[in-house]
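tool_call: predict_structure(chain=1)
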Amino acid sequence: MDRKKELKLQYKQMRPPMGVFIIRSKVNQKCYLQTAQDFRGVMNGARVRLAAGIHPYRELQKEWNEYGPENFTIEILEKLEYDKDEAKTDYSEDLTLLQMIWEEKLANENMEFYKKRI
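tool_result:
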């Protein structure tokens, strides 16, 4: 197999890391929680939207602008492993359950969640 075909095959077989990540304020007990099948891309997208002032969570955006990015942490809380059955491609239910588990854990730690814009 030539190198180009080999690289193309490797790319198709790649599985991006998935799981749940958090954007947490250092100023108060507030956080934004999100799951994603490719959390690197989604995390980077969130950073870009916050830097550009266009994040859909207005309260998070307002505080990001007010306190500055240095007063927030963005971190991965948990990675979700892929199923051994390679035919499975939809992990949305698993990710929803993972988010619910983390929301409960964080609520028990008195964390408040940023509200969606209305």
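agent: The helical segments are 3-13, 39-52, 58-67, 92-108. Proceeding to next step.
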